[in-house]
Amino acid sequence: MASPALQAKAQALNAKMEAAARAEIAEIENKTIRKIGRKGVECTLKCFDKAGTTGPSDVLQNCANQCQMPNQQAGQLLNAEVGQFQNRLSRSMMECQDKAKDLMYPGIENDAKKMGKVEDTMLACMSKTVDTHIGLLKPMRQRVESQLKQLG
């Protein structure tokens, strides 16, 4: 069982990772996805203008659906990229847990000094993983924005 100090440090690392990820995702949403969404709304308005009061509703609906397609694809693309990023982060964190487990042997949990070293090893690994993945956020954002520009 992890010490309260380790748990607190792990939570701080988690908060650091989440804040960095949230900032990059907000950047993508605010600067790129909203533009695509706005174009979809403008396109949909043109569908209504073109259909007027007498155009067939199925044609209007098809037109509006086509207009919204890029926005839906943008959301799917972002979700897929974030999901892959989260999977890689989780796998890296599992490796940290495995490294800590590898240092464990029967009776070690009764030796506070040795358990401290195990926890320090795990925390150092987790900290490095978080820093590495924070560094991967900007390239991820650039990759997503590049793909989104092709949609919009």
Description:
This protein has one domain (20-151). It starts with a helix and ends with a helix. It has helices at 4-51, 57-102, 112-151. It is mainly α.
Element pattern in H and E: HHH
The domain count comes to 1
Radius of gyration from the CA trace?
A: 24 Å
Cα separation of the termini: 50 Å
Low-confidence stretches: none
What do the pLDDT scores average to? 93
**Estimated structural class:** mainly alpha
Percent helix, as a range, is over 70%
Report the principal-axis shape: rod-shaped
By DSSP, the count of extended strands is 0
Total number of helices: 3
Largest sheet: none
Residue fraction in strands: under 5%
Task: Give a short synopsis of this structure.
By secondary structure, this protein is mainly α. It has helices at 4-51, 57-102, 112-151. It is built from 3 helices and no strands.
List keywords for this structure.
mainly alpha
What is the topology?
Blueprint: H1 4-51, H2 57-102, H3 112-151
